[in-house]
Amino acid sequence: MVTMSSELNRIYYEREKERKEHQDLMEDALLNFNPSDEEKAIYAEEDRLYRKSLKQELTEEEEHNMCGGLR
Fold first, then answer.
1. DSSP state of 68
2. What is the pLDDT, as a whole number, of residue 71?
3. Given a cut of 60, is residue 22 above it in pLDDT?
4. In angstroms, what CA-CA distances link 6 with 1, 20, 64?
5. Do 14 and 45 fall within a single domain?
6. Rounded to whole angstroms, how far apart are CA atoms 18 and 10?
7. Domain containing 12: what range?
């Protein structure tokens, strides 16, 4: 019989393994990456927009939590 705890542990370790594999792939890609100045500018802008969206999500989550989790 599979318990809820063992199932959650299995899912956690699968996701952790996937995260580690992704991180390793990204590190390998960065080691072999040599962008032009134009590409660097594009990536910087995309990163800025991504970080801005994360801040917005965090703000919305904080607002949600301040309202007692009710929306």
1. T
2. 47
3. yes
4. 10, 21, 31
5. no
6. 12
7. 1-33
> Distance between alpha carbon 4 and the CA centroid of its chain, in Å?
26
Annotate 19-33 with DSSP letters as a single string. HHHHHHHHHHHHHT-
Assess whether 46 and 22 both reside in one domain.
no
Same-domain status, 39 and 68: yes
Residue 68 has pLDDT above 80, yes or no: no
Q: Are 71 and 64 in contact (CB under 8 A)?
A: yes
The number of distinct structural domains making up the chain is 2
Residues 6+ apart with CB under 8 A from 52: none
pLDDT at 21: 93
- Asked whether residue 22 falls in the same domain as residue 52, the answer is no
23-65 tens-digit pLDDT: 998 888 888 878 788 988 998 899 888 888 878 776 777 666 6
